[in-house]
Specification:
The complex is a heterodimer of chains A (441) and B (587). Chain A is an alpha/beta fold. Chain A folds into 3 domains: 9-70, Elongation Factor Tu (Ef-tu), domain 3; 76-341, Rossmann fold (3-Layer(aba) Sandwich), CATH 3.40.50.12240; 352-436, no CATH class. Chain A is built from 12 helices and 21 strands. Chain A is elongated and about 85 Å long. Chain B is α+β, with helices and mostly antiparallel strands. Chain B folds into 4 domains: 3-72, Beta Barrel (Thrombin, subunit H), CATH 2.40.10; 111-193, Beta Barrel (OB fold (Dihydrolipoamide Acetyltransferase, E2P)); 210-435, Rossmann fold (3-Layer(aba) Sandwich), CATH 3.40.50; 455-585, Bovine Mitochondrial F1-atpase, Atp Synthase Beta Chain, Chain D, domain 3 (Bovine Mitochondrial F1-ATPase, ATP Synthase Beta Chain, Chain D, domain3), CATH 1.10.1140. Helix content of chain B is 32%, strand content 26%. Chain B is built from 14 helices and 29 strands. In chain B, strands 8, 20, 21, 22, 23, 24, 25, 26 and 27 form a 9-stranded mixed beta sheet that branches. A 6-stranded antiparallel barrel of chain B has the order 1-2-5-4-3-6. Chain B has a 4-stranded antiparallel beta sheet with strand order 12-11-9-14, with no helix packed on it. Chain B is globular. Classes of the chains: A alpha/beta (441), B alpha+beta (587). Strand 5 (39-47) of chain A pairs antiparallel with strand 1 of chain B.
Chain lengths: 441, 587
């Protein structure tokens, strides 16, 4: 991004804060980009001739006589098929040593899809992980985060899901990614021979935090190009959205806005919704699916970031270490995919819904039995059987190392029902029991 | 008209220097190059107006020109609103071109060229007033009344009235003469500022008629009335939206207005795709024919989100004035409150609790008060039943939006995380929830006369049963299965029967999703009889197993077509199981 000859240069800043600077300038558009001593900045406030700029790279070392030039446009990305296989920073500049991408220059953070032009998401994404496919089926055009504590293997699970999802393009938006995690993704995709389908926009922990604010819009602008122009199915991975929200709160704090819950800006819901709502099924076949990561602190989902996210996304996935089987499982109680109804029994067998619910109810019975056990009470025969069922259900279906197809997982569930219970205890519609209950031999 | 120039921009808050008078809430259009961006005045300081822009302000500049419209944000009211999909400002979303929303693309809410078959209902010489019915046209299956515009104050004499025939929206339907002899021309279309209530009714009595929703946990436990208000707070994932959709599909209303306010676009898409296909069981027509959708999803501009609930309410009031029974659903009012918070924050107002504006409780109760059951000037009645979803931050029911709404709404359907976690849907907490209407003598009378003489009695019995069941459950958990008398197990399992059979309902099952009142009565009687029965058991293990069997058969009944062969077969099976253990039926 070079300055051009005819642009006017300003050299007098009237105010500098940790993230913003203010100067007197005329004929400036809202959201417009500027360079402050070569650092990229964006207009966030105009009062008369006073223009406030948010400097993405931070204001360290910016003098009050810094050179400011306005670029006459909002942040943009050059889009073309050449994006595939490339790695970029938050500004859309290559970081893989390759050439700049030639293509159509598009403003990022573009308009929303007209709701009447959306299609109902109705194609299931099979992941092979039954904890997801059976209980929390994913649908293309969905947006769903992992709610995870930092010690959980969410990036691994996300990478598995991404590779098995059979998407035409996978776009990684990394915010505050550690260099190690960045290399992990790069390796996994490379080993799978999938690099030509991957596009990455990465802001690592080495980069200034405010830059992160550009990452989701960059990733989604690229996604929209492939989904709208090429009718491709695009999977967007955003990790970690908590760090994105933290960057929002830094900026709002510097602009003297009144914080709402948990020191987050009052507009957090709208800010996050603008990103997640880019997930869409287009009528011509293209789609954008967003799988994100929201790290929690101490599993607290009432914090403003996971809380607002939960209201926006179509469900959430929780991972949990099950000490009974010493494996990480997809928690069936707290996880939810809101769009599963669109595909359950349609892209999967007709008994899916009832099998799913029955298994979870029995798993809940086991949880009650476990409480009884821990409190030192005697268990009934039913309690004992529930506990045994729960262990095997966890191991055969919920664990993240499971790789089983859509029919196999249902058959396996029926097998477990028959091993431990009577049909009346399972409580499934009679016609399904007649059809699928394993016959004794 | 007053003109102005942009003087400052902070996100969607714009300061405008004006050259003449401006009114609070007046609409203006800011010219961004050639695109007009609609905005609303929310504060005036000296010669400067603060306006909230209903669009993104990207690339807007200081010095851009502004034109004021001289009126507040108005809804356009006339035949053709049914079955439409609007945004929060009542733009017809289906008329917009392209996949993406374009700034400044404002479309007509009605079909300009449409013709309507008009039948007069009044006579020349009649004395009329705002809201008087002049005639009607057939809109889908509703007799859409053409009324004297609500903006006209006082009494008028009907000077001319169009005869039966086909008219377009802009044709003159009537000419009215006021007391000064001044003439007023009436067409089929009128406008009304959305933030003001339409008061073209003579009285607003306490509502007393039960509104059948087909949802058992509401009808059989905490019924709502025609013209009543209710709200459903719940943490995410507890099924607020599924409940709202179930209400919109099955509730017994003439017209449903769904305001999708700041929620997920895919949820609205579900309505868009399902409602034109689904049958309305009562009329046999498609659900979409009685539905209007206001979709201002979470990624659409924030200021228009605030407007969307008002637009929806104004349309509801317009149709109520025709003597119709309206159900208005808003999902969710918390997003509307957040929109207020964002603006209040940008205007640097002193914040109230959780940074919401101080007058939030007043704004919410003001809005809920626009619902209600009314007597119209011609003696007929109409109603707006309003049920709002609330999304409490962190699932905490003590947060400002939930608290303010609790003061305004009369029915409280608390969605419980615990019930949702154990997949007991709908997750309405039967013990915390309440319906204040159960305290109304006129409603109690209505129930016993129109639903069933023992409806209230059964309902109160059931509530008590659930509380006792919960207490027994807690005792069992503390003292252990062996540590409590057998009676506690019985008590717990009896409440479980009620929970599984009456409260839990499968919103995605064709048969179970909606239960007509006749069927609810029938099942209620069966369950109450079971609960009142005395049983003979030797151990708690037996209780456990026996009641699981009972519940299983009763659930099969719920899944079967009412009074079908299957249904009767399961009933016989149920009676057999009961014979095994029951000793006596206590009255």
């Amino acid at each position: 991004m070079e300055t051009q000859a005819f642009q006017k240069t300003y050299t007098k800043l009237t105010q500098i804060t940790k993230a913003t600077c203010t100067l007197q300038a005329a004929d400036v558009g809202y959201d417009e980009l500027a360079l402050v001593n070569g650092r990229l900045a964006q207009v966030v406030k105009i009062i008369g001739n006073n223009v406030t700029l948010q400097i993405f790279g931070g204001t360290e070392g910016v003098p009050n006589n810094a050179e400011v030039t306005f670029l006459g446009k909002a942040p943009t990305l050059n889009v073309s098929d050449d994006l595939a296989g490339r790695f970029f920073n938050a500004y859309g500049q290559p970081i893989d040593g390759g050439p700049e991408v030639e293509g159509l220059e598009i403003e990022i953070g573009g308009p929303s899809v007209n709701p009447v032009q959306r299609m109902k998401p109705s194609n299931m994404i099979f992941t092979g992980i039954a904890g997801i496919d059976l209980n929390n089926s994913l649908v293309s055009g969905q947006k769903i985060p992992f709610f995870a504590d930092p010690d959980q293997p969410f990036n691994q699970v996300m990478a598995i899901v991404a590779l098995r999802a059979k998407a035409d393009k996978i776009i990684l938006g990394g915010m505050g990614l550690t260099n190690d995690d960045y290399l992990f993704f790069k390796n996994v995709f490379d080993n799978a021979g999938a690099l030509d389908r991957i596009i990455s926009f990465v802001n690592t922990t080495d980069d200034p935090p405010v830059e992160r604010l550009l990452i989701p819009d960059m990733a989604l602008t690229a996604a929209e190009y492939f989904a709208v122009e090429k009718n491709e199915t695009v999977l967007v991975l955003l990790t970690d959205m908590t760090l994105y929200a933290d960057a929002l709160s830094i900026v709002s704090n510097r602009m003297d806005q009144i914080p709402s819950k948990d020191s987050m800006p009052g507009s957090l819901y709208s800010d996050l919704a603008k990103i997640y709502e880019k997930a869409v099924q287009f009528p011509k076949g293209g789609s954008i699916t967003i799988i994100a990561v929201t790290t929690l602190s101490g599993g607290d989902i009432t914090h403003a970031i996971p809380d607002n996210t939960g209201y926006i996304t179509e469900g959430q996935l929780f991972l949990r270490r099950d000490t009974d089987i010493a494996k990480v499982i997809v928690d069936p109680f707290r996880s939810l995919s809101r769009l599963k109804q669109n595909v359950i029994g349609k892209d999967t067998r007709g008994d899916h819904a009832q099998v799913m619910n029955a298994a979870i109810k029995l798993y809940a019975e086991a949880a009650n039995a476990k409480t009884k056990l821990e409190n030192g009470f005697d268990l009934t025969d039913f309690d004992e059987r529930s506990l045994n069922f729960a262990k095997q259900y966890s191991n055969d279906l919920l664990a993240i190392d499971v790789n089983i197809d859509g029919v196999g997982m249902l058959d396996q569930a029926w097998k477990l029902f028959a091993t431990y219970f009577t049909p009346a205890e399972v409580g499934i519609k009679k016609e399904l029991v007649d059809k699928y209950w394993p016959k004794e031999n | 008209m007053t003109k102005g120039v942009v003087a400052g921009i902070i996100a969607n808050l714009v300061m405008v220097d004006v050259d003449g008078p401006v009114a609070q809430n007046e609409i203006c259009f800011i010219k961004l190059k050639k695109v007009p961006l609609m905005a609303e005045v929310i504060k005036v300081v000296g010669e400067q107006a603060y306006v909230q822009v209903f669009e993104s302000t990207r690339n807007l500049r200081v010095g851009d020109t502004v034109e004021f419209a001289g009126h507040m944000l108005e809804a356009t009211l006339g035949p053709g609103i049914l079955s439409k999909n609007y945004d929060g400002l009542q733009n017809d979303l289906n008329k917009m071109e392209g996949v993406f929303l374009k700034r400044g693309d404002y479309t007509n809410p009605l079909e300009v060229d449409s013709k309507w078959d008009f039948k007069p209902l009044a006579n020349v010489g009649d004395r009329v007033q705002a809201g008087s019915w002049l005639g009607e046209v057939q809109e889908n299956w509703i007799a859409h009344k053409i009324m004297v515009p609500f903006k006209l104050n006082g009494k008028f004499t009907l000077k001319t009235l169009a005869g039966p025939g086909n008219y377009s929206l802009s044709d003159t339907i009537a000419v009215l003469v006021d007391s000064d002899g001044k003439e007023h021309v009436v067409t089929m279309v009128q406008k009304w500022p959305v933030k003001l209530a339409i008061r073209a009714y003579t009285a607003k009595p306490r509502p007393f008629k039960m509104m059948e929703t087909g949802i058992r946990t509401i009808d059989s436990l905490n019924p709502i009335v025609e013209g009543g208000t209710g709200f459903t707070p719940g943490p995410f994932g507890t099924g607020k939206t599924v409940l709202q959709h179930a209400l919109s599909k099955h509730a017994e209303a003439d017209m449903i207005i769904v305001a999708a306010c700041g929620e997920r676009a895919n949820e609205v898409v579900e309505i868009f795709t399902e409602f034109p296909e689904l049958d309305d069981p009562r009329t046999g027509r498609k659900l979409m024919e009685r539905t209007t959708i206001i979709a201002n999803t979470s990624n659409m501009p924030v200021a228009a989100r605030e407007a969307s609930v008002y637009t929806a309410m104004t349309i509801a009031e317009y149709y109520r004035s025709m003597g119709l029974k309206i159900l208005l659903l808003a999902d969710s009012t918390s997003r509307w409150a957040q929109a207020l918070r964002e603006m209040s924050n940008r205007m640097e107002e002193l914040p109230g609790p959780d940074a919401y504006p101080m007058d939030l409780p007043a704004i919410i109760s003001n809005f809920y008060s626009r619902a209600g059951y009314v007597f119209l000037p011609n003696g007929t009645t109409g109603s707006i039943t309003f049920i709002g979803a609330v999304s409490p931050a962190g699932g905490n029911l003590k947060e400002p939006v939930t608290e303010s709404t609790k003061k305004a709404a009369r029915c409280f359907y608390a969605l419980s995380q615990q019930r949702a976690d154990s997949k007991r849907y709908p997750a309405v907490d039967p013990i915390d929830s309440y319906s204040k209407y159960l305290e109304y003598p006129e409603f109690i009378e209505y129930l016993s006369e129109n639903i069933s003489p023992d409806w209230l009695e059964n309902l109160l019995f059931a509530k008590n049963l659930l509380v006792r069941g919960k207490e027994a459950y807690e005792q069992i958990n503390i003292l252990g299965d062996d540590g409590v008398p057998l009676e506690y197990h019985l008590r717990f399992w009896k409440s479980e029967v009620f929970d599984y059979v009456i409260l839990q309902q499968d919103a995605f099952d064709h048969t179970d999703s909606s239960t007509p009142i006749e069927r609810q009565k029938y099942m209620m009687k069966i369950v109450i009889d079971i609960v009142k029965g005395q049983y003979d058991f030797d151990s708690f293990d037996e209780v456990n197993i026996y009641f699981r069997r009972l519940i299983n058969v009763l659930k099969q009944m719920n899944y079967s077509e009412y009074m079908s062969d299957d249904f009767k077969k399961f009933k016989v099976e149920l009676d057999e199981i009961l014979q095994e253990r029951i000793v006596a039926v206590t009255a």
